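Suppose a colleague, Dr. K., hands you the sequence of a protein chain of 166 amino acids and asks what its three-dimensional shape might be. Before reaching for any lab equipment, you can write down a predicted structure in token form. Begin with the sequence itself:
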Amino acid sequence: MQNLKSLSLSRNLLKRLDYLDSIADRLEQLWISYNPGINSFAGVESCTKLRVLFAGNCNISNMREISRLQVLPALEELVIHGNPLQVRSEKEEGPLVLQEKILDMLPSLRRLDGIAAIQWRTKMAEGLSLIHISEPTRLLSISYAVFCLKKKKKNLPLLMTSIQHH
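The predicted structure, expressed as tokens, is then:
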């Protein structure tokens, strides 16, 4: 495990992220999506080289957990789509509000929910609303995020866009 840089623990019914200390000094990617028992990022703070954290469709329900990630200087990609925090925020505050808060809180992020941070900011500035995202599902060098956009406050046709990233 001395060379371990990527760890995929998705779909394992995990409840906590304990015992990462032994690999924290070299772990760069952590995939924990689809673990509905995970409701906290406690334990991830020690992974100072972590660049990628895929935590979609877990049970993260408040911004305190996102704020835990502020101590990760290398974090540049985060997936949190499908967590109660995202679902509730979209319902109560509207689309893109949570993404804006996260990008402000974690300014080093280059990708959020599979979409480049610059594209999020452009969509926010243009007044577009994100209504669906699918996250990458495999540890491959190429993955896809598909999303649909619609203009806020207007009934315009949906625009389908596909983004390929490396």
